[in-house]
Amino acid sequence: MQTLREDQSTASWLVQHPLSAEDEAAMTAMRAIVEPNKGKLRGVAARVPFNAIMERVSAPAGVVYEADSVGGVSGWWCRPEGARPGEAVMHLHGGWFNWGSAQAFRHLAGHIALSVGVAAFVPDYRLAPEHPFPAAAEDVRACYLGLIERGFTKIAVTGDSAGGNLALGLLVFAATSNEPGRRALVGGVALSPVTDLTLSGGSWSTRAVADPYFIQSQADELVRSYLEGNRPDDPLASPLYADLKGLPPLRVHVGNDEVLLDDSISLVERAAAAGVDVRLDVWQGMVHGYLGGLGRLAASTATLQLIGNFLMERFANAANEE
């Protein structure tokens, strides 16, 4: 099941990962559990069950958590033992801009922090519908500048789903901003990012059956709640329509069985055309949020290793460029 055009499938920016027999069996078992609830998480009532799902991510060993406020935005620090000073990851959680919390995503962010060897901060950016666009993006920028004020000179941003959207928005902001410290942003990783709020990607059709979580009418409601009348193709809301020139190095990971697959493909293709150091890893048989399967899925472990290696390299290169 491919949505990649022939020229895309052989592009230098694409790496496709096969599905192992062990992961295939694990995914079959998972699908049997989650598919009966496909498309049923809607509105603010979904916050409690959504957060409960994320709380099931295994806790990484040797990571200490601490509540804090950075740049006026509350959140959680995830600090691995021996974290390098002056460097940090900011992880932006998913939840379609309406759900999710820093506390619920702390273990996922803790794994990323541990893989890189630096502390990670997860901000509790404001959620829709109480705080529609652009409140979340404003909080992300405030938190980033707050990290700089704290003395962090090298920062990487990671984000999953809606958080991937916000991470990409921060990369665009840093590339075009005259704010002091904007060069602190050394790179980014987006996990199954929502890049196109017009929901026009072909995978909304081609992956409608394969995706066990989302349906388009559900996403329509969540996006309307977030945008509150703003245009879905506003570059500030949909990174796919932004000017991507000058972005720092970027890596994107996505499952092949996601309705959001084309959001990643289109974004990476545009970034590559703009001259960005970018790569897309497509994981066969994987679904949205598969990184949360750490300890159960080989694809999750391999993805985390790639994220860690990439960001460690980015931090090292930034130090050499000083």
From TrEMBL:
PANTHER family given in the database record: AB HYDROLASE SUPERFAMILY PROTEIN C4A8.06C, ACETYL-HYDROLASE LIPR-RELATED
The family annotation for this protein states: Belongs to the 'GDXG' lipolytic enzyme family.
Keyword Disulfide bond assigned to the entry: answer is no
Q: What is this protein called?
A: Acetyl esterase/lipase
- A GO term for molecular function: triacylglycerol lipase activity
Ranges for the Alpha/beta hydrolase fold-3 domain? 89-291
Record's keyword terms, sorted: Hydrolase
Pfam family, any one:
Abhydrolase_3
Q: Which organism is it from?
A: Granulicella aggregans
